[in-house]
Amino acid sequence: MEQVNIHDAKTHLSRLIERVEAGEEIVIARNGTPVARLVPYVASKQRQLGGWEGKVWLAPDWDSAEANEEIWREFWEKIEREPER
Question: In terms of residue numbers, what domain contains 24?
């Protein structure tokens, strides 16, 4: 992994990008101290809908008024008990 200073990186950015596209990693330094790293971009995988289907179970009343009221009440009771920071 090669290290280049910021001035050289600004001057030769196109060349550095070509090297990164070829798979190389380059460290950019300020006064000899590494501050950034140029690495090849890796696109994230497209997420598929329904990936959790059959793996997660929700109770039939998970979003009922009663469940929401209980969550609300427990949340605010906890907030009122905690000391201010």
Answer: 2-38
| pTM as predicted | 0.53
- In 2-81, which ranges are E strands? 2-5, 26-30, 33-38
Residue 28 inside a domain? The answer is yes
Number of domain units in the chain? 1
CATH of the domain at 7: 3.40.1620.10
Residue 1 has a pLDDT of 85
Residue indicated by tokens 């000899």: 32
In-domain check, residue 31:
yes
* CB 55 within 8 Å of CB 77: no
Distances (CA, A) of 20 to 9, 37, 39, 58, 77: 12, 10, 6, 46, 54
